[in-house]
């Protein structure tokens, strides 16, 4: 079954083993908790406010971004293929009484066939570099969003600088992430992502880079897309 899905069994197992730590802000997922306000603010300001929007969050994991968008007044569906991750997200939503958020264990491609053009916003953050066919996820995101709706991606650039900072630095020197979290060859150049977006009839509107200072432990958005970067696109 898994071999037929756009998913790497080893990647699913890796994140499933850590699923119980999704909502521990001092765990391996600390960087996601730290960058979440930045990406949430950028998405919210780009679309002119998330309140009242219908959103699907592809690769939601334990629901960190899904939960935050729901608290902004959106109606959010978080989807993932990690059973344990989805259960953690559902449990957190119950415990935190998060309004208007639901979670499903379903592939983006399957949901796109089931609910085409039903969402105002689609997000897919820190997920494309973990699947065998990222271009298929881009196509699914484009199918899920309404004409004129917004699609957001974030991923890692592929170049020597990103290898040094995102893998050697983050995983081996600073120990911010478990070793083996990322595979360099799965990183995605902005030109590659732009090409997939054009092929899916998504018009690129904006790109931002995310930077980190290991001494102050502060993240910020900038115009430097050499390592982590975010993309905003609209459905034509």
From TrEMBL:
Reactions catalysed: a 3-(all-trans-polyprenyl)benzene-1,2-diol + S-adenosyl-L-methionine = a 2-methoxy-6-(all-trans-polyprenyl)phenol + S-adenosyl-L-homocysteine + H(+); a 3-demethylubiquinol + S-adenosyl-L-methionine = a ubiquinol + S-adenosyl-L-homocysteine + H(+)
UniProt GO MF annotations: 2-polyprenyl-6-hydroxyphenol methylase activity; 3-demethylubiquinol 3-O-methyltransferase activity; polyprenyldihydroxybenzoate methyltransferase activity
Signal peptide: none
Residues reported in the UniProt entry to bind S-adenosyl-L-methionine: 39, 59, 80, 125
Alphabetic keyword roster: Methyltransferase, S-adenosyl-L-methionine, Transferase, Ubiquinone biosynthesis
EC number: 2.1.1.222, 2.1.1.64
GO biological process, alphabetically ordered: methylation
UniProt cross-references to Pfam families, sorted A to Z: Methyltransf_23
TM regions (residue ranges): none
Coiled coil region boundaries: none
Pathway: Cofactor biosynthesis; ubiquinone biosynthesis
Tagged with keyword Methyltransferase: yes
Chain's role: O-methyltransferase that catalyzes the 2 O-methylation steps in the ubiquinone biosynthetic pathway.
Family classification: Belongs to the methyltransferase superfamily. UbiG/COQ3 family.
NCBIfam families linked to this entry: UbiG
Protein name (database record): Ubiquinone biosynthesis O-methyltransferase
Gene: ubiG
């Amino acid at each position: 079954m898994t071999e037929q899905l756009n998913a790497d069994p080893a990647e699913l197992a890796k994140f499933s083993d850590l699923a119980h730590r999704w909502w521990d802000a001092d765990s391996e997922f600390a960087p996601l908790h730290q960058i979440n306000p930045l990406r949430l603010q950028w998405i919210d300001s780009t679309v002119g406010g998330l309140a009242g929007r219908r959103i699907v969050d592809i690769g939601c994991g334990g629901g960190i971004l899904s939960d935050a968008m729901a608290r902004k007044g959106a109606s959010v569906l978080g989807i993932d293929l990690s059973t344990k991750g989805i259960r953690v997200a559902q449990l957190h939503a119950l415990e935190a009484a998060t309004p208007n958020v639901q979670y499903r264990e379903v592939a983006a491609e399957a949901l796109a066939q089931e609910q085409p053009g039903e969402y105002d916003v689609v997000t897919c953050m820190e997920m494309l570099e973990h699947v065998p066919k990222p271009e298929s996820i881009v196509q699914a995101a484009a199918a899920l969003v309404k004409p004129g709706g917004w699609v957001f991606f974030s991923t890692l650039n592929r170049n020597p600088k990103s290898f040094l900072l995102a893998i050697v630095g983050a995983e081996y020197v600073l120990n911010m992430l478990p070793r083996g979290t990322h595979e360099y060859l799965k990183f995605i150049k902005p030109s590659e992502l732009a090409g997939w977006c054009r092929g899916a009839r998504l018009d690129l509107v904006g790109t931002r880079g995310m930077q980190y200072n290991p001494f102050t432990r502060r993240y910020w958005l900038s115009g430097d897309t050499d390592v982590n970067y975010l993309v905003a696109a609209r459905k034509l």
